[in-house]
Amino acid sequence: MEAHTNGLQRYVYTLLAIVLSVVVLYFGKDLILLFVVSGLLAFLLLPMARRVESVGLPRWAGALTATLVMLVLVLGGFFLAGWQLTRFSGDLPALQSAFAEKGQALQRMIEDQTHISQRDQVKWFNARVGELASSGGEIVMRFFSGTGAVLSAIVPIPIFVFLLLLLKDKFRTFFEQLGKTREGLVLDIMLNVSKLSRKYLRGVLLVILILGALSSVGFLLLGLKYAVLLGFTIGFLNVIPYVGVLIGSLLPIIMALVTKDSAMYAVGALGVCLVTQFLENNFITPKIVGSSVSVNPLASIAALIGFGLLWGVVGMVLAIPITGMLKIVCDSVPSLKPYGYILGEDIDYPDEQQIHLPFINPRKPKVPLIVPPGEGLGK
Fold first, then answer.
1. Looking at the structure, do residues 122 and 44 belong to the same domain, yes or no?
2. Would residue 379 count as lying in a domain?
3. Domains in the chain: how many in total?
4. Higher pLDDT pick, 230 / 106
5. DSSP assignment of 48-96, as one string?
6. Is residue 171 included in any domain, yes or no?
7. Which phi-psi region, left, alpha or beta, contains residue 364 (left: φ > 0; alpha: ψ -120 to 50)?
8. 360 Cβ partners below 8 Å, 6+ apart?
9. Residues 57, 159 within the same domain
10. Who wins on pLDDT, 289 or 357?
11. pLDDT tier for residue 368 given thresholds of 50, 70 and 90
């Protein structure tokens, strides 16, 4: 009876913790996202700040240099994207006319094959669109509301990144002073989270560049308009697993159908997407990103949906790295180890209980990850 009561209390406490966490994540999304995005960028820029300090410059110079480099790269990316979008908007009326012409041709073909009049087709299409809008409008508004909140909070991010880099030694001392709890060293857990974040972000940025370049070359060979814009759009959307790949593949196919006379160009665009995705899934991502975030597909999809509803598109982008960090914390705390197991891939744990966790790769021996001196949150 006592064991049953303890089990029920444990279930109630776990459920209450989940509910409270969701409430905090939803209502505190502006501040939480500001810290999450700033923290991830600070992890990524940490080696650059250390390198500047190693030549004898003060700590603030390293933090400022890394932050300015980040700003230049981000603003340069926005400038190039804006330039491409400006050209696209100039051709938008012609694209709309071509799209309407293709739509009418498709309606005539359906009418010839099924004897359904074009007026009935338009009525059916408008009815389906109305149903979709009525059922999904609220979800879409909630989905993008988190994104709008994030965009309004972009300005403080460079300031937070600079301060996090400037105070990195203070944070290291803070985690050291937390000391060794009964379930592990807090500093060791944070070092592993820092290393995972840096490795994941570097890998993702490199994958975006490679995938965008390969896709752009393929679309240029096909003669598609806005090949570079479409290619790097696919690269950026690839950050969102499953959903991003599907949306990114549809864009060049639609562009080929609208701007080209033959449907074979759309088939070619689909072929480019399939080839680049095959290379990305089997060679590029495993080689560059590796198993830095070993989260199983079920946990990935659940994280995408959950963080998407909470924080919008930005939540979907951050879902996988946040889940990977959560898995590291769960793997580091013995009482939370079952949750780390259910989040991860189907890999056996080593028999020894250790704080320094491996980034598990099923093809390699399970060697503990010991963070070398100079890596992590501080010097």
1. yes
2. no
3. 2
4. 230
5. HHHHHHHTT--HHHHHHHHHHHHHHHHHHHHHHHHHHHHHHHHTHHHHH
6. no
7. beta
8. 291, 294, 344, 345, 347, 366
9. yes
10. 289
11. very low
pLDDT at 351: 43
> Distance between CA atoms of 66 and 61, rounded to whole angstroms?
9
One-letter amino acid of 186: V
Q: Does residue 145 sit in the same domain as residue 270?
A: no
> What is the C-alpha to C-alpha distance for residues 312 and 304, in angstroms, rounded to an integer?
10
Each residue's pLDDT tens digit, 177-226: 776 655 457 777 788 888 877 888 888 889 899 999 999 999 999 988 88
DSSP label at 282?
A: I
Do both 15 and 162 map to the same domain?
yes
Nearest to 59 by CA among 71, 70, 46: 46
Range of the domain at 99: 1-166
* pLDDT reported for residue 216: 92
Question: Is residue 129 domain-shared with residue 154, that is, in the same domain?
Answer: yes
State whether 32 and 97 are in the same domain.
yes
Q: How far apart are CA 199 and CA 196, in angstroms?
A: 5
Q: Which residue has the higher pLDDT, 185 or 29?
A: 29
Whether residue 136 sits in one domain with residue 248: no
pLDDT tens per residue, range 139-179:
445 545 545 555 556 778 899 999 999 998 888 888 877 76
- Predicted pLDDT at 173: 84
Question: Among residues 354, 289, 351, 355, which one has the least CA distance to residue 324?
Answer: 289
- Region of 181 (left: φ > 0; alpha: ψ -120 to 50; beta: rest) is beta
Note the pTM of the prediction, 2 decimals.
0.70
Query: For residues 157 and 38, is the Cβ–Cβ distance under 8 A?
Result: yes
Q: Tell me if 103 is assigned to some domain.
A: yes
Count of beta carbons in the 10 Å neighbourhood of residue 71 = 13
69 is a domain residue: yes
